[in-house]
C-alpha cells in the first residue's frame, strides 16, 4: 500500500446529546493542531477530552489516527476500534481502521473495513484505492483492478490509480497491458518516480532492456536516491552488456550498501560484487524492507513426532526451468518410508512434460499460486509441515513472505538463490565446503548444513540424438571453440577482457555465446572490436529445448565460466554433455559454485584462483590438444562414478541433513551448523 494521509474529519461527529463547551473547544483546538501537523499538541488535547469524556468518538478516533501516523498501528487499531464501537456510521473511521490493519498486514480485516467505509460513502475514492492495495496483497488481482478502475472513474485526473493498475498487471505478468496504465499515469504526472520504475520493470520483463534502462534513468534524474533504483539501472545495463561507466556505478553501489542504503536487490548484487559481506548486507536491507518477520499466525507449537518427516518444497518453477531440471529426480528418489514429500507450487501450470513429471514425483502437489502468503503459511501449519524448503530465494517470483510468517518449525534455503537470504526466519542454508569454506560461515545469517556436495542433478536428463554440424550453428569449420551460455547479466567487463586476451592468444578460435537479446550481441561485438578482436569471432546461439541445447555442447571444446557470478545449472549442463568447464573461484557463494561442481566430479585441475591463472589455463588447454583430450577422457569416466551426478547419493545425504534438523527441532533446540559426512 502506498503512503496515504489518514483522514482527519473537518466536521466533528455528534458526540451525544450533551457536549460541554469546553470539550467542543478542546476538540476544535486539537483538530486544528492535528491538521497543522502538531501531533504532540493534538494528542495532548485529545487526551484532555478523553479524561473528561472517555467515550468521546472524535477524540478516540483521532487519537488512533495520530498513533498510526507515529507508526503504532496496534495502538491505532485499539483506539479507532473503540471509536467505531461507539459510532459505527462514520466512513472515515472505517477507512482509517482499515489502514491501520493493513499496516499490520491483516489484509482480510482491512478489506472488511474498507468495504464498510464504501457502504457508508459509495463515492469514497480513497477507500476504493486502499481496498485495491489490500486485494493486491491477497493476490486477488482481478478484484484489485476493479477497485482501482473505480477510483479512475471517480478521479480520472489522479495518476495513482493508473499506477496501481500497472503494478497489479505487472504482478499478473501482463506487462504489455501494464505499460498502458503506467503511460497514462505519467501523462498525468510526468515526475511520478514510481510510475517510471514500474514502467521500466515491465519493459525489462518484456526484454526491452534499452527502453527499461531509459525509464529507470528518468526515475534517477527525478529522484537519485529512490529505493533500490541504483541496482535496477545496473541490472538493466548488465542485461544488454552496456558496460559504459559500470565499474564506477558498481563501486558506488558498494558504498551505498555499506552505508545501509536501500540500493539494490540481493539477486542483482550477486553479479556486481564477489564480496560476501556486501552481499549479506544487501540481503538484510532488502529483507527487512520487503519481508520482515510477521507474527500474525502466532508462535508455532511443537508438533507431535511424525512417523514420516513432512518436507515441503516451495517454488514457482515446477515447470521447464533450471531449478526443475536439477531437482526433478530428487523428489522422486526421496525415501517414502521416512519422508512425506509435498510440493507447494507458486507458479502457473503450463502443462509441459516437466510439470507432468513433477506432479507425479511428489506425494502431494498443491496448487497455491493464487493464495496469499498468509493462506499458504496457514496451509503448511495445518499440514504440520516439519521442514519448509525454499527453492527460489530472492530470484524471480519469489515468495519470502510465506517464510516470514513461519510456515514450518524448520525453514531451509536451497538451489534457487546462491547466497544468504539475510532473514532470521531462514534457519539453514544448504552448501558444501567449497561454496562456503568453514571460515566464511560468518558471512551467512543462516546456519550452514554442509553436504558432501552442493548441487543436486537429474541423472535422467536426456541429450538429443542429434549430430549438429558446425555450419548449422554458424561456427567455422576449423578452429577451437570456447563457449559460455551463461545469461548476459553474468558477463562482466573484466571477464570479457580475459576472453578477448584468450582469443588473441589462440589463433582461429571463436567464442560461442548465448543470443539473449540483439542489443547485447551488438554491444559485445563492439567490445570485442575495442579489444582488437574481430566481431565475427563471437558466435551467438539461439535458445533451444533442453535435449537439443545439451547436444549443442558437443561442438564446443571448452566452457569458460564467468565472475563474480558463476555458471550453476549451465555448468552442470556442460559437464553432463561431456564439455570441460574452466572456472575462477571467487569469495562468494555465487562465485564458487562452479568450483563446487568441478570438485564433485573430480576435476579440481579446472579450478583457478586468479585472472592470470584462468587466462593461462584456457590458452594451455586450447593449444595442447593432448592435455584437453586427457581431461575429456577423465570427465567421461567420472560422469557417472563421482558425486556430481549421483542423484541417489545426494538424496541420501540431504535426508541425513533433514533428519538432524528435525531432531534438533523436536528436542526444542535452536538451529546449529550441520555436517553430513560422505
UniProtKB/TrEMBL annotation:
Keywords in alphabetical order: Glycosyltransferase, Repeat, TPR repeat, Transferase
E.C. no: 2.4.1.255
Gene3D superfamilies cross-referenced by the UniProt entry: 3.40.50.11380, Glycogen Phosphorylase B (3.40.50.2000), Tetratricopeptide repeat domain (1.25.40.10)
Leading EC class: transferase
TPR repeat placement: 91-124, 125-158, 193-226
Pathway note: Protein modification; protein glycosylation
SUPFAM superfamilies according to UniProt: TPR-like, UDP-Glycosyltransferase/glycogen phosphorylase
Biological processes annotated in GO: protein O-linked glycosylation
Domain O-GlcNAc transferase C-terminal, chain residue ranges per copy: 305-460, 469-653
Alphabetized SMART domains for the sequence: TPR (SM00028)
Pfam family, one: TPR_16
GO molecular function: protein O-acetylglucosaminyltransferase activity
Similarity annotation: Belongs to the glycosyltransferase 41 family. O-GlcNAc transferase subfamily.
Protein name (Swiss-Prot/TrEMBL): protein O-GlcNAc transferase
Amino acid at each position: 500500500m502506498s503512503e496515504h494521509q489518514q483522514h482527519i474529519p473537518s466536521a466533528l461527529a455528534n458526540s451525544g446529546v450533551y457536549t460541554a463547551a469546553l470539550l467542543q473547544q478542546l476538540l476544535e483546538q486539537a483538530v486544528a493542531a492535528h491538521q497543522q501537523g502538531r501531533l504532540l499538541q493534538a494528542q495532548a488535547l485529545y487526551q484532555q477530552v478523553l479524561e473528561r469524556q472517555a467515550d468521546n468518538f472524535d477524540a478516540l478516533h483521532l487519537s488512533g489516527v495520530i498513533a498510526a501516523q507515529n507508526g503504532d498501528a496496534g495502538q491505532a487499531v485499539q483506539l479507532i476500534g473503540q471509536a467505531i464501537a461507539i459510532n459505527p456510521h462514520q466512513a472515515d473511521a472505517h477507512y482509517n481502521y482499515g489502514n491501520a490493519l493493513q499496516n499490520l498486514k491483516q489484509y482480510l480485516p482491512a478489506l472488511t473495513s474498507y468495504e464498510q467505509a464504501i457502504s457508508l460513502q459509495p463515492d469514497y475514492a480513497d477507500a476504493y484505492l486502499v481496498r485495491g492495495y489490500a486485494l493486491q496483497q491477497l493476490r486477488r488481482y482481478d478484484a484489485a483492478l476493479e477497485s482501482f478502475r473505480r477510483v479512475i472513474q471517480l478521479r480520472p485526473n489522479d495518476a495513482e490509480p493508473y499506477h496501481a493498475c500497472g503494478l497489479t498487471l505487472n504482478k499478473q505478468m501482463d506487462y504489455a497491458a501494464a505499460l498502458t496504465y503506467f503511460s497514462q499515469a505519467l501523462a498525468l504526472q510526468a515526475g511520478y518516480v514510481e510510475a517510471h520504475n514500474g514502467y521500466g520493470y515491465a519493459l525489462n520483463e518484456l526484454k526491452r532492456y534499452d527502453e527499461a534502462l531509459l525509464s529507470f534513468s528518468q526515475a534517477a534524474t527525478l529522484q537519485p536516491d529512490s529505493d533500490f533504483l541504483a541496482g535496477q539501472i545496473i541490472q538493466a545495463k548488465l542485461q544488454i552488456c552496456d558496460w559504459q561507466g559500470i565499474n564506477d556505478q558498481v563501486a558506488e553501489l558498494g558504498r551505498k550498501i555499506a552505508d545501509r542504503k536501500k540500493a539494490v536487490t540481493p539477486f542483482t548484487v550477486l553479479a556486481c560484487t564477489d564480496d560476501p559481506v556486501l552481499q549479506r548486507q544487501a540481503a538484510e536491507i532488502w529483507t527487512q524492507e520487503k519481508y520482515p518477520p510477521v507474527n500474525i499466525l502466532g508462535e508455532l507449537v511443537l508438533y507431535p513426532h511424525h512417523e514420516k518427516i513432512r518436507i515441503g518444497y516451495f517454488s514457482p518453477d515446477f515447470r521447464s526451468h533450471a531449478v526443475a531440471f536439477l531437482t526433478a529426480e530428487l523428489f522422486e528418489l526421496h525415501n517414502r518410508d521416512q519422508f512425506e514429500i509435498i510440493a507447494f507450487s507458486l507458479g502457473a501450470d503450463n502443462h509441459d512434460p516437466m510439470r507432468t513429471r513433477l506432479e507425479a514425483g511428489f506425494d502431494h502437489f498443491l496448487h497455491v499460486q493464487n493464495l496469499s502468503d498468509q493462506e499458504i503459511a496457514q496451509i503448511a501449519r495445518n499440514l504440520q509441515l516439519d521442514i519448509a524448503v525454499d527453492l527460489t530465494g530472492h530470484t524471480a517470483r519469489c515468495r519470502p513472505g510465506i517464510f516470514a510468517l513461519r510456515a514450518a518449525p524448520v525453514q531451509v534455503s536451497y538451489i534457487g538463490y546462491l547466497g544468504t537470504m539475510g532473514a532470521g526466519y531462514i534457519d539453514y542454508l544448504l552448501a558444501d565446503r567449497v561454496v562456503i569454506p568453514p571460515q566464511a560461515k560468518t558471512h551467512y545469517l543462516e546456519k550452514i548444513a554442509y553436504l558432501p556436495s552442493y548441487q543436486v542433478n537429474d541423472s535422467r536428463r536426456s541429450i538429443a540424438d542429434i549430430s549438429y554440424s558446425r555450419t548449422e550453428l554458424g561456427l567455422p569449420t576449423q578452429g577451437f571453440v570456447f563457449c559460455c551460455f551463461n545469461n548476459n547479466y553474468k558477463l562482466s567487463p573484466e571477464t570479457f577482457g580475459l576472453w578477448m586476451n584468450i582469443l588473441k592468444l589462440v589463433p582461429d578460435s571463436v567464442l560461442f555465446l548465448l543470443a539473449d537479446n540483439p542489443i547485447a550481441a551488438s554491444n559485445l561485438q563492439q567490445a570485442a572490436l575495442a579489444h582488437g578482436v574481430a566481431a565475427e569471432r563471437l558466435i551467438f546461439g539461439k535458445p533451444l529445448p533442453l535435449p537439443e541445447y545439451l547436444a549443442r555442447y558437443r561442438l564446443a571444446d571448452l566452457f569458460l565460466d564467468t565472475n563474480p557470478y558463476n555458471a550453476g545449472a549451465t555448468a552442470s549442463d556442460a559437464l553432463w554433455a561431456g564439455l570441460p568447464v574452466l572456472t575462477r573461484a571467487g569469495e562468494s557463494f555465487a562465485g564458487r559454485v562452479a568450483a563446487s561442481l568441478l570438485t564433485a566430479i573430480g576435476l579440481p585441475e579446472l579450478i583457478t584462483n586468479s585472472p592470470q591463472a584462468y587466462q593461462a589455463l584456457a590458452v594451455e588447454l586450447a593449444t595442447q590438444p593432448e592435455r584437453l583430450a586427457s581431461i575429456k577422457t577423465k570427465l567421461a569416466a567420472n560422469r557417472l562414478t563421482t558425486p556430481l551426478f549421483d542423484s541417489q547419493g545426494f538424496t541420501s545425504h540431504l535426508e541425513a541433513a533433514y533428519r538432524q534438523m528435525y531432531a534438533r527441532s523436536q528436542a526444542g533446540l535452536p538451529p546449529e551448523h550441520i555436517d553430513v559426512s560422505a
